[in-house]
Design brief:
This protein has one helix and four strands. By secondary structure, the chain is of the alpha+beta class. Strands 1, 2, 3 and 4 form a four-stranded antiparallel sheet that branches.
Length: about 100
Amino acid sequence: MPFHVIYEVDVPIHRSDDPDQRGLHVFTGEADSPTTALQFAHAAYDAALTGHTSPVPNGEPSGWRVRGARPGWDLEWDAATVTPWHNPHGWMTRSPIPL
């Protein structure tokens, strides 16, 4: 059953060898709740890290995938925030395209 809500999961990150270097890893995908979105993001990230030492996975059954995984950076999953994703450009809005 497809989900109809797209969530954004923002996870603070820091370098393992230099905690002062910080950033944010952003995940997006469909889920039925914020809790499920966080679980899907975490599972996709774990699968992506496995792909660095074995064949690259085709993604999770949930459809969530990771691009730009950063080995050597620790994700702070306990500090993650999950919100419905808002498309800033309206790319997903269906409207006629003038030819």
